Amino acid sequence: MTALLKVEGLTRAYPGVVANDRVSFDIAEGEIHALLGENGAGKSTLVKMIYGLVQPDAGGMTLRGRAYAPAEPSAARKAGVAMVFQHFSLFDALSVAENIALGMETPPPMRQLAARIRAVSETYGLPLNPARLVGDLSAGERQRVEIIRCLLQDPKLLIMDEPTSVLTPQEVSILFATLRKLAAEGTAILYISHKLEEIRTLCDRATILRRGRVVESCIPREKSAADLAEMMVGARLDTPARAGGSPGEVVLEVTGLSLPSATPFGTSLRDISFSVRAGEILGVGGVAGNGQDELLAALSGETPVTPGAVRLKGRPIGALGPSPRRRIAVLAAPEERLGHAAAPDMSLTENALLTAAIREGLAARGFLNWPATRAFAERVIADFDVRTPGPGNAARSLSGGNLQKFVIGREVLQRPEVLVVNQPTWGVDAAAAAAIRQALLDLAQAGAAVIVISQDLDELMEISDRFAALNEGRLSPPRPAQGLTLEEIGLMLGGAHDMEVAHVAD
Amino acid sequence: MIRLEKRPQPSRIWTVATPVLAVALTMVAGGLMFAALGKDPVVAIRTIFWDPLFNEQFASYSRPQLLVKAGPLILIATGLSLGFRAGIWNIGAEGQYIMGALAGAGVALALYPLDAWFLFPLMVLAGALGGWAWAMIPAILKTRFRTNEILVSLLLVYVAEQVLAAMALGLMKNPEGGGFPGSRNLQHYPAAANTELIAGTGMHWGVAAAFIAVIAAYVMLTRHMLGFQIRLAGQSPRAARFAGVNPNALVLICLGLSGALAGLAGMFEVSGPAGRVNIGFNQGYGFTAIIVAFLGRLHPVGILLAGLLMALTYIGGELAQFMLGIPAAAIQAFQGMLLFFLLGVDVLSNYHIRLGRRRVA
Asked: Which part of the chain is the ABC transporter domain (chain A) (predicted)?
């Protein structure tokens, strides 16, 4: 195997932190190479340097033996490096082909482009109709648009950032088949993920980053998931402990909750009914875009519904807004950390005030008690191991995992009776995810009713007592989580979500 | 090649230093312009920035003018900045200023010649209410029918100007004025006059109100829930809704507050420096205040300084026209440069500037 990309001594410092410290590794042609590390370990900085979004302070790269220093992403693309981001940048109101044309410097005529999209999608087993509106696509199909956009450039190196976080198990296996075929044709793939089992099945080699440095390099097939986690974190991870207890009385009851979609591409909630008991965790699975955001908004009070549709211990609370619901200990943590759960440019202290003002008594007659707010923020930071220089730092300066710990911690410490969380560990590293799951289990243990909306099925199986699937705004009847197989869950979720069955052409 | 790199957090040093840098750059660029017009740049700059305050000959006249001009600008801009911070764009302060003046003057003229201690306080109340009511029109249309408050508030300025003309020519016309348009001069009506509080300083009740508004806005933005909600709604509307902020209530509060303060400014002007309701009574304070609000970075203390600076360039500009024969258009260009540089160098507080492409060794 010849090295396609060689990275030597890449260093990049930001004020106060060295994100990458003399990072060296190489990727061979046709290799699927995993980049593994906790949040804040420097994976995204490293990838951004390879993709030309960030320039290194020191060190260099060679691509096929030639010096490679992309000044911007277009230079990287010209050199044959493509990237599929964790967050899609697609326009809902445009068709697949139009979206792909937008990303090209000199797009061919639409008809020709559509033909090329069809050809690539058939070759790699990624069925996709170029004429469909992106707004009508599932998350898995949207990801295909991004992948095909990259493949049209005929890349030598394809970077994938957490690609499976939005996919059903069936979709994951389709994606893996595609990636293996690409690799067999000689395309190298740099695969970033925190799902250790996936890395073990898919990747040829793994480079492990910790605190900005390469700590180890290994062949993941030869290691257990626990070994990989240990290399990544530098310490053994505890799987969340779960003490069996019998659930108490019904705390939250939702009956016949229907909510028309506010936007053309949103999802309408249709006749949702369920109940949660004290001390119980209800897991709500489903692929993104099936009504998760809408369900959270209805439960948090952001979208008021008919009073009787949501009841707390029999009392109708559907019409209450977020503040009155907080007063009666119904709390929520939305999925989008920056811009929804937290204000990006505000300090952590101010973000603590954002939801905790009422329950923590941080304001008297409207006047804010900043010392108490700061103390509460510091308590969240300490109790949930949020890594930040202090509560005065802006929310956007935190890594995703750290901010997520802050957001969950902020709600948990307010002693909720009902806590609704959406995607509590999305894009969060293994250690932080384990801490968050443990916190949710402890909260339920202490008698709260917890609803966890997530796309991560392993996570839901690990912590929930009962499981329900959200599909096109409908919720399946909850079933006890114990004993459910991955296959059964996949079917509850709607299988590969109304997609044509994929065939990878040989 | 120059590249901009976003700072993880806005730089505190640059936030303070950029206005100073901008004034310095304006002096350089303005000096070049004055030199091109054949005027001595040093003298011109001195005439604009120094003479109004310290020249023995002019200072006694122009120094009080500084507060007289800055007062309404600061009062209106402080109110506007609250809405701007929340993403609520009241562009019609000029109209609210007129309506406040009409309401305040209307009370005085209706009760003329009543001589009672409560007359002036009543006018203050009426002035605030007048501006508030005029601002409620775009506010209610926005909350009820989702109309755009920028358009509605702006167009209402022109309506207010017509109302002003109608009042000056009709209902409020001075019956003893020999048929000329315009109301009685309130400065000649002691119970209603907004007189200088300290002789020779230009300090009148409106200036005092402006200072109080600056302090109150500062306290509200830093220590009060409402100020927090205003900042939150402006920065991240979705997080604000999650935090329980009612967007409609915020529209009513912000437009109402800015309207009331603009109305107050109009009322203090009509009962003080202007003296009477007349066509063309409004001199564009309501529009200039928008510039002042942004020059002051929507921060109360910044607005205080920006208002004083803006007033200074007006007075100094007039002086330079009068003394050096610099054309009025050149003075406006000079003020434009100030705004241009202030907004231009603002990029430094949010971005690092990197010179040259980074090459990897």
From this structure: 5-236, 252-497
